[in-house]
């Protein structure tokens, strides 16, 4: 195709996307209305419903859809819950085209209006060009943007430049349970002809400048349970004469990180690769607005003062966060009770070279050591219900070239090349199981508020993100054909 006809084609696609903004937003509104929270067991039915909605949406585009049953899983309290099925979809099978597999998730983090949202988290509300709602950016918006882009080609009756495969799940926010096994099982079938994998489930580093992501941290999640007697007690009647489980737990949690942010678990930094000088230089050259980032967080001060230190601690070093305590009274008012059993929840974002089983052993030994010094008769139980590995990719891959070109076309500038401090468990699974290249091509901005109150995606990013994906289909198709023509010519010569 000549370059003038290819830019005319692109123009036609972009015009269609601009003209159908309202339809695309309506589609997002329907998806955001479903409280598909995979973290809270009582909402599992909604996650199931969301999977069916996603399957129906893809089926109307002509995708052949298979909702693969993953069975059930057991919660720490013994309750058995069905796992949502994983959607495997296929659209197009032209042997001349590369096959691009898109991964996304349609489950969300918990959200309630009372958490401090300005609007109902399950009613998409547009304010000043932002589309607010739980899942707007993480990850329903980006999944729909990809689908909108595919739909545009179909609506305009343009030949598909790539074959599409879809892996859509409903358990990402709960650690992608069951997914790795499915990927292994499908390695020789569903994944056998996949050439490239694209994930769009993270954010840019800035509010305005697009980015391409080549690495993410892993996450090891822990429960630390302290159990005293068999029931909660009156703190006036029993306070002062017993070893309180919550005091034990707070001492245990307090032993994990010091006030400078350094993890106190012996050995935890041992396998983190030393920082090479050329790598440090890379960090110096990244554009990163500390003030903007601080405003996005809504905090007064970071633990570190320089851009390099902050990025290193987000991407390159592990961190430990405490998420909550189950069993402790957290409602307004004061309940003068001594809880009988409390469970602390924390996670360690790990980086390349850290081994999950070693991390688990270090955590257990450390907590048992601290606990034994308290001479408490209470029962301690430490478990690691989730462990996701970090991921790092080769930015010289064709996939990154195609994504970079598509970004330049749509946003008019080159992307930041970034890593991400958060975790997409499937990234590393895909890389290991399929041995194919993986790119993270985010369309959400740094101020989208993933997992936070007032999560949003801007109308601009949602619509330009749809264009980005459409442009990406054309770019990867072109680069892939060129690569194959070159290697074919080499073989003949
Ligand atoms: C980056 C992605 N949108 C996301 O939010 N991932 C979650 C996945 C996770 C990790 N541990 C448990 N769930 C995250 O990074 O928290
Ligand atoms: Zn996500
Ligand atoms: Zn998330």
Automatic annotation (TrEMBL):
<comment type="similarity">
    <text>Belongs to the peptidase M20A family.</text>
</comment>
<feature type="binding site">
    <location>
        <position position="201"/>
    </location>
    <ligand>
        <name>Mn(2+) 2</name>
    </ligand>
</feature>
<feature type="binding site">
    <location>
        <position position="138"/>
    </location>
    <ligand>
        <name>Mn(2+) 1</name>
    </ligand>
</feature>
<dbReference type="GO" id="GO:0046872">
    <property type="term" value="F:metal ion binding"/>
</dbReference>
<dbReference type="GO" id="GO:0006508">
    <property type="term" value="P:proteolysis"/>
</dbReference>
<feature type="binding site">
    <location>
        <position position="173"/>
    </location>
    <ligand>
        <name>Mn(2+) 1</name>
    </ligand>
</feature>
<dbReference type="InterPro" id="IPR002933">
    <property type="entry name" value="Peptidase_M20"/>
</dbReference>
<feature type="active site">
    <location>
        <position position="107"/>
    </location>
</feature>
<protein>
    <submittedName>
        <fullName>Carnosine dipeptidase 1</fullName>
    </submittedName>
</protein>
<keyword id="KW-0378">Hydrolase</keyword>
<keyword id="KW-0464">Manganese</keyword>
<feature type="active site" description="Proton acceptor">
    <location>
        <position position="172"/>
    </location>
</feature>
<keyword id="KW-0482">Metalloprotease</keyword>
<feature type="binding site">
    <location>
        <position position="138"/>
    </location>
    <ligand>
        <name>Mn(2+) 2</name>
    </ligand>
</feature>
<feature type="site" description="Important for catalytic activity">
    <location>
        <position position="234"/>
    </location>
</feature>
<feature type="domain" description="Peptidase M20 dimerisation">
    <location>
        <begin position="214"/>
        <end position="370"/>
    </location>
</feature>
<dbReference type="GO" id="GO:0070573">
    <property type="term" value="F:metallodipeptidase activity"/>
</dbReference>
<dbReference type="Pfam" id="PF01546">
    <property type="entry name" value="Peptidase_M20"/>
</dbReference>
<dbReference type="GO" id="GO:0051246">
    <property type="term" value="P:regulation of protein metabolic process"/>
</dbReference>
<keyword id="KW-0479">Metal-binding</keyword>
<dbReference type="Pfam" id="PF07687">
    <property type="entry name" value="M20_dimer"/>
</dbReference>
<dbReference type="InterPro" id="IPR017153">
    <property type="entry name" value="CNDP/DUG1"/>
</dbReference>
<dbReference type="InterPro" id="IPR011650">
    <property type="entry name" value="Peptidase_M20_dimer"/>
</dbReference>
<keyword id="KW-0645">Protease</keyword>
<dbReference type="InterPro" id="IPR051458">
    <property type="entry name" value="Cyt/Met_Dipeptidase"/>
</dbReference>
<feature type="binding site">
    <location>
        <position position="105"/>
    </location>
    <ligand>
        <name>Mn(2+) 2</name>
    </ligand>
</feature>
<feature type="binding site">
    <location>
        <position position="451"/>
    </location>
    <ligand>
        <name>Mn(2+) 1</name>
    </ligand>
</feature>
<dbReference type="GO" id="GO:0005829">
    <property type="term" value="C:cytosol"/>
</dbReference>
């Amino acid at each position: 195709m000549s370059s003038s006809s290819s830019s005319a084609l692109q123009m036609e696609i972009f015009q269609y996307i601009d003209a159908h903004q309202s339809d695309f937003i309506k589609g997002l509104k329907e998806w955001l209305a479903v409280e598909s929270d995979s973290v809270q067991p009582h909402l599992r039915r909604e996650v199931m419903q969301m999977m069916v909605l996603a399957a129906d949406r893809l089926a109307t585009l002509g995708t052949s859809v298979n909702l693969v049953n993953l069975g059930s899983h057991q919660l720490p309290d013994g309750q058995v819950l069905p796992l949502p099925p994983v959607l495997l979809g296929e659209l197009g099978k032209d042997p001349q085209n590369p096959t691009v597999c898109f991964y996304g998730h349609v489950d969300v983090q918990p959200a309630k209006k009372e958490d401090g949202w300005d609007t109902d988290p399950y009613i998409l509300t547009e304010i000043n060009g932002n589309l607010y709602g739980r899942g707007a950016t993480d990850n329903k918006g980006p999944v729909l943007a990809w689908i909108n882009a595919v739909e545009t080609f179909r609506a305009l009756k343009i030949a598909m430049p790539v074959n599409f495969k879809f892996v859509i799940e409903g358990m990402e926010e709960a650690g992608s349970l069951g997914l790795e096994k499915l990927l292994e099982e499908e390695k020789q079938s569903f994944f056998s002809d996949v050439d490239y994998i694209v994930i769009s489930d993270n954010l840019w580093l800035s509010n305005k400048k697009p980015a391409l992501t080549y690495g993410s941290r892993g996450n090891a999640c822990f429960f630390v349970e302290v159990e005293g007697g068999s029931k909660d007690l009156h703190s006036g009647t029993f306070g002062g004469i017993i070893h309180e489980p919550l005091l034990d737990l707070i001492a245990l949690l307090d032993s994990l990180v010091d006030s400078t942010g350094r993890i106190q678990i012996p050995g935890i930094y041992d396998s983190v690769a030393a920082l090479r000088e050329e790598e440090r230089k890379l960090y110096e050259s990244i554009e990163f607005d500390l003030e903007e980032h601080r405003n996005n967080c809504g905090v007064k001060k970071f633990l570190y003062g320089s851009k390099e230190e902050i990025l290193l601690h987000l991407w390159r070093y592990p961190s430990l966060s405490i998420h909550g305590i189950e069993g402790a009274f957290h409602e307004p008012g004061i309940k003068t009770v001594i809880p009988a059993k409390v469970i602390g929840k924390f996670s360690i974002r790990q980086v390349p070279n850290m081994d999950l089983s070693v991390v688990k052993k270090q955590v257990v030994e450390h907590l048992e050591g601290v606990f034994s010094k308290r001479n408490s008769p209470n029962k301690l139980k430490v478990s690691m219900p989730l462990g996701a590995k970090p991921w790092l990719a080769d930015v010289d891959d064709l996939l990154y070239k195609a994504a970079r070109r598509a970004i330049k076309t749509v946003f008019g500038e080159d992307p930041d090349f970034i890593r991400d401090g958060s975790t997409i468990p499937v990234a590393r699974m895909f890389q290991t199981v399929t041995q194919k290249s993986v790119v993270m091509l985010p369309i959400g901005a740094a101020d989208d508020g993933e997992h936070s109150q007032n999560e949003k995606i801007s109308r601009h990013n949602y619509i330009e993100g749809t264009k980005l994906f459409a442009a990406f289909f054309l770019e990867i198709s072109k680069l892939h054909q060129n690569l194959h023509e070159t290697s074919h010519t080499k073989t003949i010569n």
